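re: ur question from earlier - yeah i can do the single chain one, its not a big deal. heres the input i used so u can compare w yours
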Amino acid sequence: MKDITKKYTNGEVTIVWKPGLCIHSAICFKGLGEVFHPQELPWITMEKSSSEKIVEQIKRCPSGALSYYLNQKSNEEVNVEAETIVETSPNGPLLVYGNVSIKNNDGIITKKNNVTAFCRCGSSGNKPFCDGSHKKIGFVG
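and the output i got, formated as tokens:
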């Protein structure tokens, strides 16, 4: 998997897109289609909405493929003040909303916030995270 990162900015907020993490949940363009339109280039047009609406939509991204930072505060860690909620996505990943610390076999801890998608089908090449493989194998569950 290539480690590609693309950035889009409106001067106030910068969207960071990592296509290798995308699980194609379509939450971005179903929620804010005037900004996110994957059939066009560029696929993100930030001038079509407010920074506040864009940030709120990015917070719903279950894979972490979309993230953001405020240009004046790019070094601040984002911390969601909310109860942690776990939700099963039909025929897809386990979605965890809130702050999560994931410890791998080597003891390295990765911190995630907002929404994190965990693999349920067993086919992800990025375990424990979902990489969209459930769609390729026809996972039902």
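The CA atoms of residues 48 and 73 lie 23 Å apart. not sure if urs matches, ping me
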